[in-house]
C-alpha cells in the first residue's frame, strides 16, 4: 500500500536543489505532531499542562518555550500550539487536562512545517513577510502568526532556521512562492 | 560637446546607442541626456499639444521636458532622458508627448522586500550622507536610499570638496564605510516615492535597468521596498526653479544648476556661448564653473539691483558673487531680465532689457540688447523637495526670504535636513545632516564633516518677465501650459490652484510639476492679487515619480497572483485529467472527461455512476470545526436553528445557521463525537467565516459558555463514496466494519479501519443516494483515495456532478440558491427550524411580518416544457407568454439549472414569489428572444421519499 504523503512532498527535489548553493536550506519537515491547546492560563489546568509539557505555558504574546523536543508557541491569550517530533500522541496532554474546561485538538495534519534556513533565510522571508525578522527582534523564543506572501503562517525561529508552519492546502502555493523568491540567491 | 577630461564617466569604455534611428556613442556613467548633449543633440522631444521642439531642461528626475520612448531591449514609454542610464544597445526615440506600452509580456522579474530600521535617510547628498554617518555611528539600524546610481547628490554636480577630498570621492568613501556596517543598508538607484502613516515608506529600487540586454534574468529588474522606520531623515535636496519668459521652452534653455552638473558630472558642455538669467546667487557659481570649463559666458542677467532709485527696495546680487563674476571677465547686467529666447528649433539668440523698461506697456525688448548664444541658463532660486514631508502629514510654511515653501511640522517622527529645508551652503548641509542623524539615534554629538565656507547664496522671488503677450511664457513644459493659460483660468473664475490644475492640466504630467508647481501658483496668486503664501500649492501625493505597474505587482503575477489551495488528493486529480473549478481559493475537480467526452457527456456519465453504481468525490474542502466543552451542545443550540444538544453520541444531524436577520448564513452537518465534543462541517466557502462567527458569539455575547472551537479543515481528508453499490465497496475496504443498514444507519458515524487506515466514516448523503463520507488525516488522504480507485469499480466525479445530484434532491447551495435574503422557511425547510427552543440566532426575525409575507421568494423546482431546454442560471420568470408593457412584473429567477441523467431531461431550481403556492403553475422564462414555458414543481425532483438515501 502507498505511504502516507505530506503536503509538500512533491517539492523535495526542488527544495534540495535550491539548498545546494549554501545560501539557503529549504526542506519540508513532515509529519510533526501539532496539538492546538485551549485553556485559561490562570487555571490550575494550565499549570498541570505546563508540568506535563515540562515548561509553563508562555503567556507573553508572540513567544515560545522549548522543553526537550517539545515547543509550545503562544497563539492567543488562551491558545497555544504544541509542536513535537512525529509520533507524539496527544494523550499525555488530554490526561493532564482531565475533564476540566479546555481543549486539546490534534492538528498535526492541519499544517506542515517548511524549514527556511541558511545565511539568506531571513532575506528570503522578508520578500513576503512584513514583520521585522532581524535576529535582535525575532530570535530564539519568539513566534509569530502572520502572512508570508499571501498565506497565513506561524513562524518559529529555531536553531536550524525559521520554521514556517503553513496550512496544508497552502503548502504547494507557498513552496512555489519560496522557490521563486529564492531565485536570485541560488547563483 | 564633451570636455577633454573630467566627469564621473569611464572614458576607457564606449557604449553604442541609437536615438531616433541615428547611432551615437557615450560612456558608462552617462545618462541618455548627457550622451545626447555630448553628441550635440539638442532637440530631444516634441511637445504634446503645440508640437514645439523641446530639449533637456534639467539633470535629474525633476525633468519636465526631455521625455523619451525606450525601444530596445524592452519597450518602455515616457522616461526622462535625464534618468536613463546609458547602456550598450540602448535604442530610444523622441516622443510627441505620449509613450507606447509594449504589446508583448514583460519577461523581467519584479519583486518586493520588507525592511525595518531605526533611521531611514532619504537622499545621499551631503546632508543625507552626514545624517546616515551620524546615525550609524550611534549603532542604529540605518537604511540610506538615494535615487541616483552614485552617492553624493549635489556634490557630483558642483565640484566642491569635503574633508579635503573631492565631493564625489568623499561621498564614495563615506558610503563604502557605511556599507561595511552589518546593520546599514545602502540603496543606490532607489527612489522613496510614498510616505504613509506610522513611518511606513515605499521605495522603488532600479536594479538591472541600467544593464540593458546584459541584465541577468534571475535578478529582479526593479524592487519595491516597504520600509518601516522608527525615524526618518529627509535629505531630499532642492529643485531649481525656472522663470517664465517668451520662448523659455526652446532647446538650449536649461536650469543653471543642471548645466553645472553636466559639466562636472558628465564632462559635457551643453553649449558654447551662454547667457545666464538669474534671480539668485547660486547661478553665479554655475556661470563661473562653466566659464572655467570653456563655455563663453556672454553675460549674467540678474533681475536684482540696478534700480534707478538707489533707495529702492530691490535686493542686489550678492556682492561676493558679483565680484567673482566681474573678476572672471563676465558682464553683469544687474536689474535686467531676459525678454525672449529666440531661434529656429533651438536657442540662437537672447534678448535682454532693463527691468525698469519692461513694465508691459512697451513692446518686449524695446531698448534692450541682443546676445548671440546657444545656451540660456535660468535660475529663479531653489524649491526644497518637500514632497515626502508633505505626504507624511507635514505642514509647509512659506519662507519669504527664500520665496518658497519649506517644511514646518509633521505628526510623524521625521526630520528634514539640508537643502530640503532651505539650507543652501555645503557646510550648512553637512552640519544640518549630522545633527539630524545624531538626534535620530543616541543624540550624541558627532563630528561634522568639513567644507569650505562660502557666502550664503540669496535671491529674490521672481517668476514672470512681463510682456504684452504671455502665450509663449511656458510654465509646464510637458503639458504645454503657459502663463497666458493660467491667467485665462483665473479669468474664467477659478480661485483654487487645485481647480486651475485640473482646468489647465498644469502639474499633471509624469513630473507632477516638480519644477513648475510653485511657478504656477505664483502666476495664479499674482492674477488673483493674493500672496503665494496664502494661495499655497497643489497637494503632494504619492508616487513621487512614476512607478510601473509591473513593479508594483512584483511577484503577485500569474500562478502566484492568488494562492491556489489544493487538497491532499490533488495530484491524483491532475494525473487523472480532471478539469478544475475555482471555489474561493480552492481548486476542486470539476469533472473527469474521458477521451472524446465533452462536459455534458462526462457529467451525465458521472451522475449515472453515482445513481446506479458507485462513485466517489473529494469532499476535503468542506470546513471542519472541532467544538469542545461542557456547554458545546448548548452553544450549538443557540447557533443552529434546530436542536443539536439532543444529538446522541455516534449520530449526525444536518443543521442550518441564520444571521440575526433570520436569513440562512451557512449549513452543514454536526457530528457528536462525545458528550462534550462535536465536529461541525461548514460549506467550503464559509469555513473561516463560520469559525469567526462562533468566536464572535463566544467572546462577545456568551463568554460564560465553556466552549472552545478549533479549525480542523485541513487535518482531515474526506472522500464521499456514493451510490447503490457504495455499501459493498465500503464493506470490502473495511472488513471490520458492520455496514448493514441496521448496524450502520443513515445519519450515524463509526470509527473503522478503511483500506488499513484509521478513519471516521459518516453515513451522510449530499446526493440523495446511499452514501458514506470517509474521513482520514490529510496525510492518509491520497492513499485512501488511491485504494478506492484501484478497485476499478468506483467512478470519480467532480463538483458539477455533485451539483446535479444535490439539485435533483432540492438541496440548496449557500451562495448559489441562497443569497442572504432567504429564510429556511423560504427553502421549504421549516422542519429544520426548532419550535421548541427558547432562542437561537435569527429566531426573532422569523416572527417578523416580513418573513411571513406570502409573496416571499421561495425555492421551487422548474421543468421546462421542452425537456431539452437548459434554462440559463439567472433567467427571470414572468407570468404570461406575452410580455406586457414595462415595468414587467418579475416573479423570480433561476438559481440552478442542469441536465439530469436520472430524470432524463433538464430541470432547474428557482426562487419564485409565493413559489410554494404555485406548484403546477406555468411560468415563462425569456430565453434567446422567446418566452420558454416552464412548470413549477416541488424543489425535490428525485426520490422524494428518501428511500434510496435511507436504504
Description:
The complex is a heterodimer of chains A (187) and B (951). Chain A is an alpha+beta fold. Chain A has two domains: 9-27 and 111-182, Gyrase A, domain 2, CATH 3.30.1360; 33-106, Heterotetrameric sarcosine oxidase (Alpha-Beta Plaits, 2-Layer Sandwich), CATH 3.30.70.1520. Helix content of chain A is 22%, strand content 32%. Chain A has five helices and ten strands; from the N terminus they run αββαβββαββαβββα. Chain A has helices at 12-18, 44-53, 91-97, 121-126, 171-181; strands at 25-29, 33-38, 64-67, 70-76, 79-84, 103-106, 111-117, 144-148, 151-158, 161-167. In chain A, a hairpin with a 2-residue loop joins strand 9 and strand 10 (161-167). The longest helix of chain A has 11 residues, at 171-181. Chain A is globular and about 55 Å long. The mean pLDDT of chain A is 95. Chain B is built from 22 helices and 49 strands. In chain B, strands 8, 9, 12, 13, 14, 15 and 28 form a seven-stranded mixed beta sheet that branches. A six-stranded mixed beta sheet of chain B has the order 40-41-42-39-33-43. In chain B, helix 2 packs parallel to helix 4 (167-180) and helix 16 (599-612) packs across helix 21 (799-808). Chain B is elongated, with a radius of gyration of 39 Å. Chain B starts with 14 loop residues before the first strand and ends with a helix. At the A-B interface, strand 6 and helix 5 of A face strand 8, strand 38 and helix 20 of B.
Secondary structure class of chain B reads alpha+beta
| Top CATH class of the largest domain in chain A | Alpha Beta
User: How many discrete structural domains of chain B?
Assistant: 7
CATH fold type of the largest domain in chain B: FAD/NAD(P)-binding domain
Give the C-alpha Rg of chain A.
17 Å
CATH superfamily grouping of the largest domain in chain B: FAD/NAD(P)-binding domain
Average of pLDDT of chain A:
95
Unreliable stretches of chain A (pLDDT < 50, length at least 5) are: none
Determine the oligomeric state from the structure. Answer: heterodimer
- Give the percentage of residues in beta strands of chain A: 25-35%
Unreliable runs of chain B: 361-365
Record the strand order, biggest sheet of chain A: 1-7-10-9-8
**Net shape of chain B:** elongated
How far apart lie the N and C ends of chain B? 95 Å
The CATH topology of the largest domain in chain A, please? Answer: Gyrase A, domain 2
Distance between the termini of chain A: 40 Å
At CATH level 2, the architecture of the largest domain in chain B is 3-Layer(bba) Sandwich
Amino acid at each position: 500500500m502507498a505511504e502516507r504523503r505530506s503536503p509538500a512532498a512533491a517539492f523535495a527535489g526542488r527544495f534540495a536543489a535550491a539548498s545546494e548553493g549554501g545560501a539557503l536550506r529549504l526542506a519540508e519537515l513532515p509529519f510533526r505532531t501539532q496539538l492546538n491547546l485551549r485553556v485559561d492560563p490562570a487555571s490550575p489546568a494550565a499549570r498541570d499542562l505546563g508540568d506535563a509539557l515540562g515548561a509553563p505555558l508562555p503567556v507573553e504574546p508572540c513567544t515560545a518555550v522549548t522543553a526537550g523536543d517539545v515547543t509550545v508557541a503562544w497563539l492567543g491569550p488562551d491558545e497555544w500550539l504544541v509542536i513535537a517530533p512525529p509520533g507524539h500522541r496527544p494523550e499525555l496532554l488530554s490526561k493532564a487536562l482531565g475533564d476540566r474546561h479546555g481543549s486539546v485538538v490534534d492538528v498535526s495534519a492541519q499544517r506542515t512545517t517548511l524549514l527556511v534556513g541558511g545565511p539568506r533565510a531571513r532575506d528570503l522571508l522578508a520578500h513576503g513577510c512584513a514583520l521585522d525578522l532581524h535576529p535582535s527582534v525575532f530570535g530564539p523564543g519568539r513566534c509569530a502568526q502572520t502572512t508570508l506572501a499571501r498565506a497565513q503562517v506561524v513562524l518559529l525561529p529555531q536553531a536550524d532556521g525559521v520554521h514556517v508552519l503553513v496550512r496544508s492546502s497552502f503548502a504547494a502555493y507557498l513552496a512555489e512562492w519560496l522557490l521563486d523568491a529564492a531565485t536570485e540567491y541560488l547563483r | 560637446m564633451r570636455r577633454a577630461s573630467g566627469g564621473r564617466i569611464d572614458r576607457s569604455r564606449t557604449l553604442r546607442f541609437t536615438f531616433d534611428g541615428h547611432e551615437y556613442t557615450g560612456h558608462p556613467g552617462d545618462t541618455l541626456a548627457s550622451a545626447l548633449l555630448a553628441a550635440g543633440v539638442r532637440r530631444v522631444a516634441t511637445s504634446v499639444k503645440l508640437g514645439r521642439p523641446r530639449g533637456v531642461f534639467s539633470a535629474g528626475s525633476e525633468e519636465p521636458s526631455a521625455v523619451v520612448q525606450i525601444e530596445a531591449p524592452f519597450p518602455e514609454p515616457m522616461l526622462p532622458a535625464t534618468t536613463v542610464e546609458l547602456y550598450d544597445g540602448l535604442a530610444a526615440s523622441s516622443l510627441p508627448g505620449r509613450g507606447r506600452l509594449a504589446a508583448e509580456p514583460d519577461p523581467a522579474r519584479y519583486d518586493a522586500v520588507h525592511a525595518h530600521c531605526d533611521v531611514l535617510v532619504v537622499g545621499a547628498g551631503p546632508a543625507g550622507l552626514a545624517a546616515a554617518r551620524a546615525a550609524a555611528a550611534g549603532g542604529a539600524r540605518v537604511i540610506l536610499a538615494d535615487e541616483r546610481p552614485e552617492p553624493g547628490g549635489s556634490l557630483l554636480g558642483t565640484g566642491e570638496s569635503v574633508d579635503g577630498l573631492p565631493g564625489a570621492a568623499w561621498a564614495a568613501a563615506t558610503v563604502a564605510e557605511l556599507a561595511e556596517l552589518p546593520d546599514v543598508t545602502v540603496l543606490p538607484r532607489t527612489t522613496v516615492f510614498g510616505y504613509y502613516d506610522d513611518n511606513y515608506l515605499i521605495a522603488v529600487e532600479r536594479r538591472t535597468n541600467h544593464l540593458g540586454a546584459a541584465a541577468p534574468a534571475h535578478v529582479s529588474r526593479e524592487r519595491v521596498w516597504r520600509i518601516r522606520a522608527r525615524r526618518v531623515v529627509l535629505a531630499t535636496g532642492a529643485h531649481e526653479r525656472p522663470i517664465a519668459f517668451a520662448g523659455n521652452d526652446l532647446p538650449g534653455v536649461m536650469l543653471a544648476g543642471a548645466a553645472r552638473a553636466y559639466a562636472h558630472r558628465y564632462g559635457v558642455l551643453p553649449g558654447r556661448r551662454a547667457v545666464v538669467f538669474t534671480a539668485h546667487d547660486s547661478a553665479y557659481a554655475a556661470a563661473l564653473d562653466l566659464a572655467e570649463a570653456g563655455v563663453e559666458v556672454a553675460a549674467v542677467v540678474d533681475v536684482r539691483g540696478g534700480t534707478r532709485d538707489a533707495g529702492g527696495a530691490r535686493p542686489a546680487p550678492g556682492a561676493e558673487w558679483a565680484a567673482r563674476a566681474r573678476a572672471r571677465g563676465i558682464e553683469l547686467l544687474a536689474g535686467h531680465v531676459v525678454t525672449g529666447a529666440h531661434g529656429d528649433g533651438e536657442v540662437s539668440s537672447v534678448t535682454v532689457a532693463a527691468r525698469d523698461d519692461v513694465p508691459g506697456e512697451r513692446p518686449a525688448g524695446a531698448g534692450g540688447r541682443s546676445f548671440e548664444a546657444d545656451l540660456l541658463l535660468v535660475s529663479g532660486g531653489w524649491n526644497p523637495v518637500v514632497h515626502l514631508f508633505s505626504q507624511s502629514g507635514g505642514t509647509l510654511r512659506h519662507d519669504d526670504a527664500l520665496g518658497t515653501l519649506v517644511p514646518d511640522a509633521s505628526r510623524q517622527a521625521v526630520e528634514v535636513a539640508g537643502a530640503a529645508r532651505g539650507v543652501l551652503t555645503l557646510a550648512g548641509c553637512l552640519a544640518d545632516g549630522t545633527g539630524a542623524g545624531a538626534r535620530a539615534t543616541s543624540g550624541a554629538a558627532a563630528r561634522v564633516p568639513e567644507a569650505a565656507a562660502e557666502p550664503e547664496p540669496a535671491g529674490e522671488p521672481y517668476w514672470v518677465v512681463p510682456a504684452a503677450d504671455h502665450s509663449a511664457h511656458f510654465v509646464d513644459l510637458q503639458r504645454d501650459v503657459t502663463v497666458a493659460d493660467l491667467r485665462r483660468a483665473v479669468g474664467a473664475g477659478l480661485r483654487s490652484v487645485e481647480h486651475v490644475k485640473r482646468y489647465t492640466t498644469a502639474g499633471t504630467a509624469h513630473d507632477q510639476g516638480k519644477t513648475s508647481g510653485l511657478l504656477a501658483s505664483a502666476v495664479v496668486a499674482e492674477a488673483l492679487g493674493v500672496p503665494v503664501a496664502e494661495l499655497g500649492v497643489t497637494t503632494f501625493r504619492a508616487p513621487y515619480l512614476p512607478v510601473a505597474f509591473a513593479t508594483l505587482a512584483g511577484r503577485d503575477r500569474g500562478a502566484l497572483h492568488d494562492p491556489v489551495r489544493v487538497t491532499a488528493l490533488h495530484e491524483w486529480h491532475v494525473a487523472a485529467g480532471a478539469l478544475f473549478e475555482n471555489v474561493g481559493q480552492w481548486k476542486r475537480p470539476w469533472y473527469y472527461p474521458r477521451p472524446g467526452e465533452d462536459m455534458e457527456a462526462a457529467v451525465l456519465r458521472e451522475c449515472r455512476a453515482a445513481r446506479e453504481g458507485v462513485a466517489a468525490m473529494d469532499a476535503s474542502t468542506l470546513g471542519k470545526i472541532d467544538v469542545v466543552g461542557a456547554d458545546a451542545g448548548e452553544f450549538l443550540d443557540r447557533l443552529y436553528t434546530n436542536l443539536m444538544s439532543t444529538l446522541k453520541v455516534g449520530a449526525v444531524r444536518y443543521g442550518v445557521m441564520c444571521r440575526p436577520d433570520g436569513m440562512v448564513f451557512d449549513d452543514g452537518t454536526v457530528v457528536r463525537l462525545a458528550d462534550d465534543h462535536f465536529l461541525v462541517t461548514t460549506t467550503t466557502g464559509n469555513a473561516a467565516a463560520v469559525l469567526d462567527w462562533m468566536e464572535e458569539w463566544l467572546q462577545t455575547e456568551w463568554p460564560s459558555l465553556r466552549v472552545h472551537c478549533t479549525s480542523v479543515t485541513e487535518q482531515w481528508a474526506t472522500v464521499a463514496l456514493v451510490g447503490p453499490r457504495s455499501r459493498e465497496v465500503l464493506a470490502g475496504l473495511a472488513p471490520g466494519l458492520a455496514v448493514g443498514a441496521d448496524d450502520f444507519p443513515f445519519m450515524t458515524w463509526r470509527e473503522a479501519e478503511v483500506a488499513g487506515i484509521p478513519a471516521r466514516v459518516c453515513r451522510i448523503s449530499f446526493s440523495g443516494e446511499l452514501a458514506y463520507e470517509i474521513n482520514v488525516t490529510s496525510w492518509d488522504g491520497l492513499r485512501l483515495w488511491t485504494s478506492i480507485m484501484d478497485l476499478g469499480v468506483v467512478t470519480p466525479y467532480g463538483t458539477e456532478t455533485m451539483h446535479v445530484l444535490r439539485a435533483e434532491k432540492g438541496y440548496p447551495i449557500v451562495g448559489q440558491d441562497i443569497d442572504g435574503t432567504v429564510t429556511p422557511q423560504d427553502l421549504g425547510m421549516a422542519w429544520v427550524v426548532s419550535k421548541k427552543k427558547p432562542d437561537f440566532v435569527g429566531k426573532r426575525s422569523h416572527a417578523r411580518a416580513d418573513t411571513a409575507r406570502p409573496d416571499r421568494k421561495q425555492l421551487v423546482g422548474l421543468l421546462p416544457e421542452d425537456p431539452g431546454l437548459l434554462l440559463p442560471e439567472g433567467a427571470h420568470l414572468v407570468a404570461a407568454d406575452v410580455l406586457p408593457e414595462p415595468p414587467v412584473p418579475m416573479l423570480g429567477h433561476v438559481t440552478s439549472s442542469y441536465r439530469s441523467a436520472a430524470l432524463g431531461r433538464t430541470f432547474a431550481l428557482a426562487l419564485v414569489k409565493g413559489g410554494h403556492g404555485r406548484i403546477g403553475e406555468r411560468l415563462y422564462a425569456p430565453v434567446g428572444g422567446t418566452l420558454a414555458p416552464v412548470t413549477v414543481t416541488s424543489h425535490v425532483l428525485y426520490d422524494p421519499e428518501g428511500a434510496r438515501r435511507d436504504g
